[in-house]
Amino acid sequence: MNAVDASALSAALAEANLAVLVAALAQLTGDLTLIDRYPDPRLFDHGRGPGTLAPAAADAIRAEAFAVLSAPRRIPEHPALDEVALHRITEFCAGEEISPDYLALIEQEANLDGVDVRRFEWQRRPPESVLKRFHVVIIGAGLGGLCAAIRLEQAGIPYTVFEKNADLGGTWFENTYPDLRVDVPNHFYSYSFFPNPDWPDHYARREELADYIGRAAKEYGVVDHIRFETEVEEAAFDEARGTWAVRISGPGETREVVDANAVISAVGMLNRPSIPEIEGLDSFAGPWFHSARWDHDVELRGRRVAVVGTGASAMQFVPAIAPEIEQLLIFQRSRHWVVPNPNYHRPVADAEKWLFRHVPGYAGWYRFLMFWNSADRMYPAFRVDPEWPDQDRSISRPNDKLRRVMTAHVEEQLAERPDLVADVLPDYPALGKRMLQDNGWFRALLRDNVELVNDRIARVEPHSVITTAGDSYAVDVVILATGFLPNKYLWPMTIRGRETDLREEWGDDPRAYLGITMPGFPNLFCLYGPNTNPVVGSVVFVLECQVDYIVRAIAAMLERGLSTMECRRAAHDEYNARVDAEHEHLVWRHPRVHSYYNNEAGRVTTNMPWKLLEYWRMTREPELDDFVVRRG
């Protein structure tokens, strides 16, 4: 390593996550005594942790890392780990015991050996003539549809992606409101097979994600298979032919019907905005729009703006627009638990990017740590402890700990206005609704030009909003931060199966086997379908699991000469019975919780009740006994 590289290495090591660094060194060298010498380096992390590890120990870790990484290497950059070594390093990096059941998943998810082990490989590759006659239609070019396209491209299975928008990204293309960003660390909120060492922020902004999605599409050569500004209106199954007729509308109001042997819906769940029925809204004289369809032509500076809703979108854009507005009125419809997160706005330092690019194993172990801390590690806080004494406020000891942490954060942030604390604190247990990251929300509420209104809106008049208490608020612009229609999966498309219309069959109670496939709809697969929303972890993880399952199912059809595969009713019903039974033990069925997670009858239709490990196991390989198959 030359002097310039040595200087860069030294600077980078000063910014390293020490637990991740020791894990990477242990894998690289095979020297597991490192773990014994440095028992808990997480406790010394730039002052962001408790800081109880002596500085000399941190200096020793960096010195040892410098010696190893600056020396000529004759070993592979990603040495294979046996199960014992993998388990020891994993528990060291996480700082706690981890079941051996997770090891195979961790090896895949963190890509520790530098090999995309989830990439599909044929057992008996069909002749090219067979492959060419098969055609898959993918609906949507967001993260799910793009993942499906990449895997089909790698398998050599013909496909076409229909995307209603003018570019890639799905929700990350459509939503453009100020300061939009992910609320999962983006080193985990990304494809396991396409790591990005150059994320500018730890929680990526919308523009950064759009760039990542575009680079992935180009890297894997799928762009030419995407037809933009083309919307699927209807898909109808042809019983006689065993294929789908997909009706599309394209640019210039063109209409076309495309045949498909299989259809993958990747339209997402939070896709269609929910417009509340507010009396007089259409009579409002000024501009109004939904946050998911942000109107950038509307000037907000110096105007009186009403924001309806205090959910995830408002939590992000309100602090961004508040400084330029004359008066901001926030009409709170429901209260939300808010997580303090000091890293939410923290950029990734250049030294950290250097580590991701140049230190073997560092990016993989860092991704593992983000996976573990934001996913199954939190699962116990969602489960009801029937012996817990105070079921009104919390459901278990871990859940109550979260409640106390977030309550203290609210009280600290609103110390100048203690009267506001009661106005924003929820009366339901933590995790009952979507957890929100503090994007400067409470500081925004303290501004002189911001007012939180807890009364419901009765109606809108041409120049004002009237509440049920009879108060009138003069406003120039109305912004609806009122969420989406999560239960309208695949809406507004018409999906006609063998005998029924999917929209009619589902109604307000959508169900699917593994959230992926339904009886009566052969060769139709859903990504991010019913009961697959991971409230901990990353939706990208779930999408990868589902795509792996679907591609393997399609491959099984091709390898075995099958024309159709249709989920058995018994398998479908038994699975959904297990889903409902599991939800009865989770916080979303608490009597004080009412959210988009539940349908009108109270059934949880969106959320996945399983740990990520459990869902990964369920979707590793399609069980053909769960399907009725037809040859020919």
Structure overview:
The protein has 632 residues and is of the alpha/beta class. The strands form 6 sheets. Strands 3-2-1-7-19 form a 5-stranded parallel β-sheet, covered by helices on one side. Strands 8-17-9-10-13 form a 5-stranded parallel β-sheet, with no helix packed on it. It folds into 3 domains: 3-117 and 351-374, no CATH class; 134-272 and 486-625, FAD/NAD(P)-binding domain; 281-343 and 398-480, FAD/NAD(P)-binding domain, CATH 3.50.50.60. Residues 46-53 have low confidence and may be disordered. Helix 2 packs parallel to helix 4, helix 2 packs antiparallel against helix 5 (83-94) and helix 8 packs parallel to helix 18. It is globular.
